[in-house]
Specification:
This protein has 23 helices and 19 strands. It is of the alpha/beta class. The strands form four sheets. Strands 3-2-4-5-7-6 form a six-stranded parallel sheet, sandwiched between helices.
């Protein structure tokens, strides 16, 4: 921009202009005193950028997460100072655990009042520092474009995650010289994409080529780096079976002959047994979470582990690797593939299939086609899978229903599973579905939520109604906090401490938000009720009364090895 073209604008205007220049389409937020100047600047640009008023700041954070998880780029949320900013914290913590890129912008009291305990003053930078990739407080308007550019670069690059920018009110009012927006492409001392160590690739190839019982575990990093094709090519060429972590669902074709299921606490029987038999484990874009490993002291001790991971901190953090490759999953696999020999492990894969038959007979058949009793969670998910052909965006909450959504839906497309994994945030699903649906309005978005989770964030039905979002919400109602109750039954001698819910009329609540709703209790009416829901244009709530004390299996008991997985009590 020429010297004569330079102009004076406020810091607030600079915020909005920077976001527009970054290509931001929508902001999720809640206004208040300390961020009001930014909202005033936003008012003048609503033709260029959309704002969604959620009913709570936590809802704004989760909605932003939902959008980012489907689009795979940084989303934006706003909040005012003090309680507004702290209400974002759960969503920010959720985002850092699940590698979700967000730029969170909070208002702050004027700079001269910092440290005085002014009205609604909270050190949100200090509070958020442990749960962000980067937190920064802006006190002068001139900093705004540069800091916002840096924030987006950090949030989107490397291992994605949330960034928080706190802007004092004086900086929002101040005039600055606008010289245009320059996107950030590097940050000193921050390596977004590390160079691949070719020697380690050769070592990894040697392990893979010589293995007799290899196993690939692919996580969300495969989806983030868009490496699904590379994983499938690796599996096809090498003949190695593939399992997917919960957050990795959609990262491999579930109908592929080499797909063997899900590892971990409520994963597949065969995978959990075979993880402790494989002689080589190729972990791609995943961290060895305790829900995957079980007792880490007993986890895959017989295997040589190759770990491909963008976050170097994760390599050797939980399990000892034979080869740790610090790299982007897609780039690493592209470089690795030419070194891999054609192979066939059909006999090894067949051992998974034999164990699958046991799980099918003991667990799955009854879960999806029960012969008697109340409606079961597995049969609901099986029907939803059939009716959407595995192509919907599924947004489960946290608990038993989440695990059933993981097990009994076939995720045929990437970016189809939007759930709180690492933090396990109850109340995530309703607000997250707002962002997920807006990120892909042409796809069907289905919320799977328990009666307990639903009551944590049901106020966001107001946001869904206000914007007429085509979100289908299925409430699994058993009048219990189901997962806690299951643990109390199995491990605490049936002492059901504070888990029974006296629920309100969910249909009346939904209709109070002007959202079409219905209730089903009879199995004979379930399929038709789902058809009515999916045929309806606009949001819909379907309450399904389910088996009151259904337990979820298989299960790896807490503290046990994965190979100690049990099929039934």
């Amino acid at each position: 921009m020429s010297e004569t073209a330079k102009k004076q604008i406020t810091g607030s205007e600079a915020v909005i202009q920077s976001l527009i220049a970054e290509g931001v389409e929508v902001i999720y937020g809640y206004p208040g005193g300390a961020i009001m100047p930014i909202y005033d600047a936003l008012w003048h640009q609503l033709g260029n950028i959309q704002h969604i008023l959620t009913r709570h700041e936590q809802g704004a954070a989760h909605a932003a997460e939902g959008w980012a998880r489907v689009r795979r780029k940084a989303s934006v949320c706003f909040a005012t100072s003090g309680p507004g900013a702290t209400n974002l914290i759960t969503g920010i913590a959720d985002a850092i655990m699940d590698s979700t890129p967000m730029v969170c912008i909070t208002g702050q009291v004027p700079a001269h009042l910092l440290g005085t305990d002014a009205f609604q003053e909270t050190d949100v930078v200090g509070v958020s520092m442990p749960i962000t990739k980067w937190s920064y407080q802006i006190t002068t308007a001139a900093e705004i474009p540069t800091i916002i550019a840096k924030a987006f670069f950090i949030a989107n690059s490397g291992k994605p995650g949330p960034v928080l920018i706190d802007i004092t009110k004086n900086a929002q009012f101040e005039l600055m010289e606008w010289q245009g927006y320059i996107p950030c492409t590097e940050v000193r001392g921050y390596i977004a994409k590390p160079a691949i160590d070719t020697n380690k690739l050769k070592d990894a190839a040697e392990i893979i080529n010589s293995a007799k019982k290899p196993l690939i575990i692919a996580g969300q990093g495969v989806i983030i780096s868009e490496a699904r094709e590379e994983v499938e090519n690796l599996s096809q060429k090498s003949g190695i079976p593939v399992c997917l972590t919960m957050q990795g669902l959609g990262g491999f074709d579930p109908d592929h002959d080499n797909y063997v299921g899900i590892p971990g606490m409520h994963g597949n029987y065969s995978v959990n047994i075979k993880m402790n038999e494989c002689d080589a484990m190729i972990a791609i874009g995943m961290r060895f979470d305790d829900r995957v490993t079980g007792d880490v002291k007993q986890f895959a001790k017989q295997a040589k582990i190759v770990h491909i991971e963008i976050d170097e901190v994760e390599i050797d953090k939980v399990v000892k690797t034979a080869v740790g490759i610090h790299a982007d999953a897609k780039e690493a696999l592209q470089a690795l593939l030419p070194l891999i020999k054609e192979n066939n492990h059909a006999d090894w894969i067949q051992t998974f299939k034999e164990l699958d038959k046991q799980e099918q007979e003991v667990v799955i058949k009854q879960a999806i086609h029960p012969e008697s009793g109340s409606i079961r969670m597995g049969e609901i998910m099986n029907l939803i899978d059939e009716k959407t052909k595995g192509e919907a965006i599924i947004v489960p909450d946290v608990g038993q229903h989440q695990m059933y959504a993981m097990r009994y839906y076939h995720y045929r497309k990437p970016n189809s599973w939007v759930s709180s994994g690492g933090l396990g945030t109850m109340g995530f699903s309703i607000p997250a579905s707002i962002g997920a649906q807006m990120a892909a309005p042409d796809r069907t978005t289905v919320v799977i939520v328990g009666d307990g989770c639903f009551q944590m964030t049901l106020q966001e039905l107001g946001t869904i109604w206000q914007h007429d979002l085509n979100v289908k919400i299925v409430i699994f109602n058993n009048n219990y906090l189901g997962m806690v109750r299951q643990w109390q039954q199995l491990f605490f001698d049936n002492r059901y401490s504070s888990v029974e819910l006296k629920n309100p009329d969910f249909i009346a609540i939904s209709e109070g938000f002007k959202i079409k709703a219905s209730k089903v209790e009879d199995r004979a009416e379930l399929s038709a009720s789902l058809d009515v829901m999916f045929a309806h244009k606009g949001p819909y709530v379907l309450e399904v009364v389910i088996e009151k004390e259904e337990n979820l299996f298989p299960m790896v008991p807490s503290g046990k090895a994965c190979s100690d997985v049990i099929l039934k009590p």
